[in-house]
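Q: What would this chain look like folded?
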Amino acid sequence: MQWLEARTLQRIKGKSKNSTTALNTLEALKFHSDLRAGDDSTKMAEGWETFRLTFIRAITNALTHGCDWMESLACLHVCSRALKTGQQRVRSIVVTAMKDTSLLCNPVLHAMVIVAKLDSSFSLGVPGYSRETPSAAWEACVSRLPGKDALTLANRVFDSYLQKLGDDIDHHTIWSNEQYASEINTRTANCLGNDVRDPAHGRANHHQFTLRWHEAQ
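A: My prediction, written as structure tokens:
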């Protein structure tokens, strides 16, 4: 699991001005309808595959904005127990997490454990839905993490894409494929634009990167 960089987020002190919005977003989560498919494990696995990134983004957003971790878990409990839009399996895991005193003091690690448990729960016995896949790191590249410069972000995106492709291509030949190059640059631009600590700066970086990219084509 590498969807959060724990050391970076643990250095963030205090709440940002958007912390309340982040908590409200977390509490208002509506789980994918396929996650309430009862005994249809394949449909539930598909639902989690679709909804997983939204779930991770909401938690990451709360952590990044310095939200209290117990408050964040309480918001997850509220949204997961909602009758029409919740998910009882998630609720059960969140309730257990709220009692886990050994992990409550480490929010980032705790969040990673929760997602890992959900990954295991929804993919268990369903072929093709294991989270231990080469594409996991690529799927986790959705934003610019606090404290990371643009070069570090670009390297993270590139390395995760190379990992997703596997052994059939290397870093010397990847740029010769127009589709691969476009996907890498598009993801890099989107991550630069998704700067949760400074949205205005993110938009400016996205524009500048896209401009330079098109000039180089």
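DSSP finds eleven helices and no strands in the chain.
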